[in-house]
Specification:
By secondary structure, the protein is an alpha/beta fold. The chain has 6 helices and 12 strands. It has a single domain, classed as Rossmann fold (3-Layer(aba) Sandwich), CATH 3.40.50.1580. α2 packs parallel to α5. The radius of gyration is 18 Å and the shape is globular.
């Protein structure tokens, strides 16, 4: 496949917090500011290189802000892929500060149907009780196998930080206590980390049939000695810096990297 035969790819890269955006913006170099919704104050930065348009936007914190922002951006930009970068908190004791979590799947941990005798996960934004069981949406969002393969091949080998693959939890709660984290760890035994935006991004991506990926770096550990707030305050900048190192490698990929099955 020649370079001339490869169509331009549009890749939307999302962050949630200003500290994440500031660190990741540095990987973009020269970029153009593009207003996307004047009424809602949603902008994106555009970097064009090697038949790839990289669009970077800051969603704001939380599921609601993420859903609004990514829906508007995806409708306007029509990206070929959506990639989330930023920080998260560990819910597995195997993760250390600055480690990367490559999400193979995402679950909104606080989207539940509470019945008289049971409590079941629901896919966010989908009907549940009035829908036959066999027709209910899967509450687990699978990340794109193609994007996972791209990350494993082109980005992970160049990183100087450990990369862990597995389940990423997402919800409306800022999970800041050991007890709350441990409860999530017990309920979702395969979960690695928790944050507050990815489930909404994955929901919009599913509805619009856009491949998506989330890569998060750890800002606070799972420890019983009440160090979560201390970790977060002390290591947030480091985790954001590690997220920026991922972005720096990502934006040097050409359009051919995003081709294939």
């Amino acid at each position: 496949m020649t370079k001339e035969s490869i169509k331009t790819k549009r890749i939307l890269i999302l962050t949630a917090m200003d500290v994440e955006a500031a660190a990741i913006f540095s990987a973009f170099g020269s970029k153009k500011l593009v207003p996307c919704s004047i009424d809602l104050g949603i902008d994106a930065f555009l970097l064009s290189s090697d038949n790839v348009e990289y669009w970077l936007a800051n969603m704001g914190i939380g599921l609601g802000s993420a859903a609004i922002t990514v829906a508007i951006l995806a409708a306007k930009i029509k990206p070929h892929a959506i990639i989330q970068l930023g920080v998260a908190g560990a819910v597995s004791p195997s993760l250390e500060i600055g480690d990367a979590v490559l999400a193979t799947s995402i679950i909104q941990h606080d989207s539940f149907f509470s019945g008289e005798n049971d409590r079941e996960l629901m896919a966010p934004g989908a009907l549940y009780l009035s829908t036959p069981k066999e027709q209910r949406e899967n509450p687990e969002f699978r990340c794109s196998e193609k994007l996972l393969a791209l990350f494993r091949k082109n980005i992970a080998p160049a990183l100087s930080i450990p990369v862990h693959e597995g389940l990423l939890l997402s919800g409306s709660e800022f999970v800041g206590s050991f007890a709350s984290k441990k409860a999530l760890s017990d309920r979702f035994s395969k979960a690695l980390a928790v944050e507050m935006e990815s489930a909404s991004v994955a929901m919009v991506a599913r509805r619009m049939s856009i491949p998506t990926l989330a890569v998060k770096t750890i800002a606070d550990r799972l420890r019983p000695d009440k160090t979560i707030a201390h970790d977060y305050g002390r290591f947030l900048d480091l985790a954001a810096k590690n997220a920026a190192s991922i972005a720096q490698r990502l934006v040097h990929l050409d359009a051919a990297s995003f081709e294939g099955p």
